[in-house]
Automatic annotation (TrEMBL):
It comes from the Eukaryota. Gene3D superfamilies: ABC transporter type 1, transmembrane domain. Residues 2-56 form the ABC transmembrane type-1 domain. One of its GO terms (molecular function) is ATP binding. GO terms for cellular component: membrane. This is ABC transmembrane type-1 domain-containing protein. Keywords: Membrane, Transmembrane, Transmembrane helix.
Length: 57
């Protein structure tokens, strides 16, 4: 596993823990599970790519 993948995995875990610690009322929005997961995935992929670019040089 590359450094950027490990960092992205740590960020995903930290984000997941942060979500679990939120009050249930925070999720009373028009966001669907699909939108939340897609947003997390897209953002983490961008972060992983950026970290990977910096680490390679």
């Amino acid at each position: 596993m590359y450094s950027s993948e490990r960092q992205a995995a740590r960020l995903r875990l930290a984000f997941f823990r942060a979500i679990l610690s939120r009050d249930i009322g925070a999720f009373d929005t028009d966001l669907t599970t699909r939108k939340i997961i897609a947003g997390i995935t897209n953002h983490m992929n961008v972060i992983q790519d950026a970290i990977g670019e910096k680490v390679r040089h």
